[in-house]
Specification:
The protein has 887 residues and is an alpha/beta fold. It is 59% helix and 15% strand. The longest helix is centred in the middle third of the chain and has 41 residues. Bound molecules: ligand C2E and calcium ion (2 copies). The site of one calcium ion has 4 residues, from loops.
Length: 887
Amino acid sequence: MFTPKSTERSRRRVDARTTIWVAYLIGALALTVAYFLATPATAKLVFWPIIGWSSFAAMIVGIRMHKPEGRGAWYLLAAGLAMLIIGDDLYSVRNFVLHARNLFPSYVDVVYLTMYPLLIVGLSMLVRRRSIQRDRASVVDAAIITCGVGLLAWVILIVPYLRTDMSMMERATSIAYPLADVALLAIVARLAVGSGRRPVAFWLLAASLVSLLAADAIYGYRNLADTWHEHDPIDIGWILFYAGWAAAALHPSMRELSVRAIGSARITRRRLMFVGSAALISPAVLFVQQLLGPVVDGAAIAIVSAALFILVLGRMSGLARKAADERNETRFRALVNNASDAIVVVDDIGTIRYQTPSAERVFGRTSEQLVGHSLGTMLTADDERQLHMLLEREGVTTTIEWRILGVDGEQRDMEIAAADMRSDSDVRGLVLTMRDITERKLLDGELRRQALHDTLTGLPNRSLFHDRVAHALRRASRENLEVAVLFLDLDDFKMVNDSLGHAAGDEVLVAVAARLVSALKAHDTVARFGGDEFAVLLESSNATEASELVAKRIQGALLAPFDVAGEHIPVHVSIGISIGLPGAATPSDLLRDADLAMYVAKRDGKARFEHYAPEMHEHAIRRLEVASELRGAIDNDELVLFYQPIVVTDTGRYLGVEALVRWNHPKRGLVPPLDFIPIAESTGLIIPLGRWVLDQACQQMRIWRRDGLVGEDFYVSVNLSARHLRDPNVVEDVAHALDVAGLPANALLIEVTESALVEDLDPTGAVFTRLKGLGVRLAIDDFGTGYSSLARLSTFPLDVVKIDKSFVDRLTLSADGEATVRAVVALAHTLGMVAVAEGVEEAEQADALAELGCTMSQGFLFARPVPAEALTASLIGGGANLVRSAR
Ligand code: C2E
Ligand code: CA
Ligand code: CA
């Protein structure tokens, strides 16, 4: 736990350690002063042991307090120190208490000399801990220093001893000290030139060793010259060794001494000078000896010089290789540092050991917040688990995606190439090369969203809806649920677009989408398929019931008109519903069935909902068959025109005929227009069909006129569909038919259904004017079924109003019916139009119509639609005039 309290505590502990360290130094200083002030005997017997043993104690305290890694090395160093102290104490006791002076060599020397192997082994262990790999350069440098200084020791200390007249034992012991010192020096030099951290403790250790060696050297030299005596200022050298040794162990930075260093030490100018001057010792010695007299140590100097030469050569070749390596490394480092990808190396437990500078940007953390910290804590829980799984396996190389948690809580997506290089001694870690793919992911997400959503309303689109249905069907079969799909199509939405423009249309669609969403529960899916088509997906244990409820709720939600472009726009919707039973349906089936049911809802009067029934499917297939056959029907001359006379109501005299199309189907016989006209309209075939009817009717009229069977004012009525009227070539089609037949335009009357007027206000208005411009007359068909106001009629250039059969039927049934027809007839007259009653079947109807002033009629009472030949026959017979009078 890393609470503020514990931080506080650990800081105080560090403070306490520093205090102990300072206290020890002050104590040591005080003892040193006391030592030099006291008499030799007191100094040597009292203060010296105190200085020695207090240092040893301090060292042990330091080791136990700081608990460094590789404690064994430190204990060996402490043991070495102890040997020196014991040796000193024995020596003093013998000297000052027993007054046995010239006992040399003795067991004391054995104790003294034991110190060296302890120190050398201890220091070697430390050196080994500090460097992770073999550092050949440092070894060579240390050897150069050792050779140089060793030559000095040889010339100054060792050779003179060899030349004395001491006994063999005495000489050997005397030489053993400087030799051991040189050996110790070698390891000290290695420590000094090696890589690794150099905290305070390092310098203390190095300094105390140097002062030990210096004190030993000076002692040896003065001993030779016989200028040495007890309680000498040189003692300060050993005191510095004691105190420095202890101070190093007590200092908090001593733990860092055993931290591994990566790579070898850099070549600094200082180091070059240091090593270089060591190499110069040998010529210097030669020079000095030459100056002082004959050269005495020529052989030693030559050997050392040769050794130094070889060492320097070796070092140079190493340097050359290293320079090449470094150039490569510099290049590599530049690449790595400037790469946008971040590279992070983690150890066995997921701690970051190394990272490239770009990692700071990728992680949003400083390098201090990265190195030495656990990578797992910067990942989501799942990713952290994956990291540990990676670390558990060996030798993996893989690519993964992780999410890095920023310190500010922001998350970034990373694509990571992981390579386990823990067995590679240069790396020793799991290498993670990370690329920030946050932007790319966002873009992906946005593209995905766009690909799956409708841009106008933001609702799911057809393909996402399809997926959701598939998913719902799978879940339904598991959980025993039912799935319902509602297919919605706004009624007459084209009118909104045509009259108010597409911008307003879009606005209505967005508002409709919002109302749909609010009418449904959150887990129901609403999609827009484009245009004015929407779809809803429901999951329920009783989808039939639920879908009806939802359909009603949707109708309720759309009840209030939409206020767009300053208009109140009413919107109605036709809904088809299909239910998918678990395991039985595919998404495509469901959508197709709902679409079919919607179509039926539209056909049967719009603003309603319909459940899918299998017959719908058969019906739809029939429609498809009809549509494909109808295509050939026109070319194969399977269409025929029947003609039904339009007569004077009270006399029955023929005034004209209405051309009514039939399909003489090779298998099904005569097909009535209501069975194929709607299909022709929905497939666009109505346009060639309309052209054919126009041409055919005009041709027939020409024949009747040519044969003198009809008068100049006899006319033919042709029905044109609203779709054909919207076609840009419709006026040309009419003109062409008249032209080919050589017929005057007034012989043709064009009938347009009331709904065509309602649907296509503007365009048709222009078409009407242009048709009128040809001289053709216009009629409104089925008047009274299309809800258009009578006043609206006045805005069109119409000549004839055809009163729908349903009005005629009501005429004799109620006074109300009569009043309606009377009003229509009166209005037609006011507007300068002629009224024609349709579907007159009974004489009473004809009588009532005549009475109301409706002078023209059409109906079975007078004549049924018949083929051209039949009509020609009755025209020849002139029987037409007899229909009424015959009664
Ligand atoms: P419509 O234009 O209202 O045509 C009159 C319909 O009423 C005809 O039906 C006719 O046979 C029928 N009819 C006439 N007198 C009576 C009667 O006394 N009693 C009854 N019960 N019906 C009577 P038809 O020929 O079946 O045509 C139906 C509809 O098909 C037409 O209604 C028209 O809208 C459409 N249609 C027919 N031929 C064409 C055409 O060439 N082009 C287009 N676009 N539509 C056509
Ligand atoms: Ca008609
Ligand atoms: Ca009609």
